[in-house]
Amino acid sequence: MATLREYSEALVRKLEERNAELEQAQKALTHFNQELEKKVRERTIELEATKWSLENFAYTVSHDLRAPLRHISAFSGFVRDETGNTLTRQSRKHLLVATRAAVKMDRMIEGLLRLASLGQAGLQLATVDLSRMVEESRRELEASTHNRKIHWRIGPLPEVVADPTLLPQVLTNLLTNAVKFTRHRPVARIDVGSRPNQAGEVEVFVRDNGAGFDSQYATKLFGVFQRVHTEKQFEGTGIGLATVQAIIERHGGKVWAEGEVDQGATFYFTLKSGSIESR
Q1: In this structure, are 15 and 131 located in the same domain?
Q2: Distance of CA 56 to CAs 67, 96, 241, Å?
Q3: Distance CA 22, CA 267 (A)
Q4: How many domains would you assign to the chain?
Q5: Where in the sequence is the domain holding 41, given as residue range(s)?
Q6: What's the CATH code of the domain at 220?
């Protein structure tokens, strides 16, 4: 009997110790949750402040900076086109250069604003018919390519899960680049195709036989304002491929490029294949 009583008393002590440990753990967990909630609130306030700063920056750029540029462009044009002025041919040329520079900077600012807005908008995912979207993007380029010989080869493309308002920007940028950099070819060749990869995604590519690029600059292509060709060779703002990368990465995909100088280029990106219903 004494042994049974001692055993019961020991068991009670153990239970009391375990209860005490559980109470301490509960208090620690409560404290941790309170600290976590505090940090989340603080972080939310910081993010809201950052968002306001970005919106304020965008407003400043679009209104306070673009307006003077447009004034430069407009008034340079007024002076250049004014009848009876005594401008020399060289002066007119200088004004034309200033006008074009202002217009280019305005386009660069517009591209930056579009790029910045990508990080603020939420993705609206849907099932996208990639074949139809590529064909629509190609058709939009017909007006500017009607006098060129371009051989398009568009292979079978699957349905993908993507934002139908953002994905066209990717395709338009890549196809526009392919058209631009094949400008000096007697016959331009542009291929669009896809293949599944080991991650269960679809790998889409746009290939051309254009000017190409030095492969050591492959990663530089996707930087903002980063270009591997001069403005004299091919016009551009250096925003297009940065936009492509931002959109694809928002979708959880990857983008990369391969090329050789004067041997063409191939741009790849990945997206989730299938339909939104199967997700």
Answers
A1: no
A2: 16, 33, 25
A3: 58
A4: 2
A5: 1-120
A6: 3.30.565.10
